[in-house]
Amino acid sequence: MQKGAIRVQTENIFPIIKKFLYSDHEIFIRELVSNAVDATQKLKTLASAGEFKGELGELEIRVAIDKEKKTLTISDRGVGMTAQEVDKYINQVAFSGAEEFLDKYKGQGDGTNIIGHFGLGFYSSFMVSNKVEIISQSYQDAPAVRWECDGSPEYTLEETTRAAGRGTDIVMYINEESEEFLDEGRVRGMLEKFCRFLPVPIMFEDRQVNNTHPAWTRKPSELTDEDYKNFYRELYPFGEPPLFWIHLNVDYPFNLTGILYFPKITKSFEIQKDKINLYSNQVFVTDQVNDIVPEFLMLLHGVIDSPDIPLNVSRSYLQGDPNVKKINGYITRKVADKLDEMFRADRKAFEEKWEFISLFVKYGMMTDDKFLDKANKFHLFQDVNGATFFTLEEYRTAATALQTNKEGKLIILYATAPVQQDAYIQAAQAKGYVVVKLDTLVDAAFINQAEQKWENVQFTRVDADIADNLIDPAEKTDSVLLADQETKLKSLFEEQVKPAHIKVEIKGLSAEAQPVIVTRPEFMRRMKDMAAVGGAGMSWYANMPDEINMTVNGNHPIYQDILAQGDAGKQEKLVKNLADLALLSQGLLTGADLTAFINRSVELLKQ
């Protein structure tokens, strides 16, 4: 029997491993199963290179719990280890056998899929164990060996027998604090989380827990639409079917495969991030992919797999690296190309999906100028009636003649709540204006960005002013009222509309126009909208009073009747009701004011 002290490259490495190396203790199962996969892949590589001529047999990894002995065992039928290899790879912490093997067999079959790169994965077993045994028999003509260590630097190494022959057993004697890892449900959950797509069959409780050939590892030409949908159901069993997907497959200047799915996301935004999983050679790494996937695509679902993404020793966090930036740019380009291809191939189908994909497109245009350049061709405006879609250039063609202001800017008229803003929309459409719908949570920010990035474009909400003033302020038009009637009417409204931030003005509009029109100037209303959805540094806008213009249409015939009214009390009530109706149309009449309006309306009807 050989006894000795483990030769570590850092003093007191066991406490470091147990407490700090891995932030999440369940990671140990990923590391040990990954090592077993490595050993299996090594054997397949040696067989394909002619260096192993024996029978491969059933290559699978088994995970077993023994509650009486309080052990968790991971067994493989891979290359195994000789006593010398155990001494070299186990007793010298942080010397990686995988690194050495990769260098020797680079480019040969499964040799490029060796997962371990750091030589510390095995020692994660001590996070949950009082004692760990290795029983291993090499594929070479050498006796089986047994290694044992209780978490101190002292170990024993001796010859033994292994009934299963070639391969390795890692036997963990689970410590008292970690007895949760002797529960079948807990272990099954970890295997399904970390190992569900590993390339070697993994057996637990006599059942295979993984899919060894997930869709992203196959060529797009081999897959049908149904294959992609089935894989989506495998990833998200309770999710709605995806709209479409993008298969990533690149091997230069970095290796990357994966499938990204576009889920159905509407303006209600029942959003769940962290739905993209990062894998390295089919080993789950993390669902925190912020650095790899552009921010505007974080709402996508799916899988990304790359051996070229650098990871720290725990494989849990991405490190800064040029490859990460390149991959980010590649994904952006692939998504833009896919959307452009869909738009050009079948515009009608693209328009039908616009409600669900507009969020991604607008967010991307705001945050990524390269995406913006491509998206300008397929970004769409939908008119408020829902029947027509315009690209920016198509909107220019349709609206330039009537909607270009004195500064030469195209005024894009929009509604955020077409039903509520119907009266304003009708007034604008009566003048021949084209009004589009911008009703998602990102639109307030989107129009601000678009005004900066698109040349000679300005957005104005359809209720920002009376229809005559939406493009350019109109000359003051006289009403049919006499000067003293105008003064009296303005005084009546100002007495009934108390808040100082409501500005009352008498104008001579069409007799068919509304008697009172309440508008909210574009700039302040837009700032308040952005503040309401958490605009950075804009919270003070949210606390400012609404800026409201109340335009009284002096040409409406109702005012002749009101001014002729002999009952001053009724006159005031009628004026107050007209003002409240206009405020109600903008959603600005609430609470006690709304109740008073309803009661007053009933009272006036009785008279």
From TrEMBL:
Q: Where does ATP bind?
A: E31, N35, D76, M81, S96, G97, T168, R315
InterPro entries, A to Z? HATPase_C_sf (IPR036890), HSP90_C (IPR037196), Hsp90_fam (IPR001404), Hsp90_N (IPR020575), Ribosomal_Su5_D2-typ_SF (IPR020568)
Q: Name one Pfam family in it.
A: HATPase_c_3
Q: Which SUPFAM superfamilies match?
A: ATPase domain of HSP90 chaperone/DNA topoisomerase II/histidine kinase (SSF55874), HSP90 C-terminal domain (SSF110942), Ribosomal protein S5 domain 2-like (SSF54211)
Keywords tagged on the record: ATP-binding, Chaperone, Cytoplasm, Nucleotide-binding, Stress response
What stretch or stretches form a coiled coil here? none
**Domain of life of the source:** Bacteria
Q: Name one GO molecular function term.
A: ATP binding
Stated family? Belongs to the heat shock protein 90 family.
* Annotated PANTHER family: HEAT SHOCK PROTEIN 90 FAMILY MEMBER (PTHR11528)
What is the recorded name of this protein? Chaperone protein HtpG
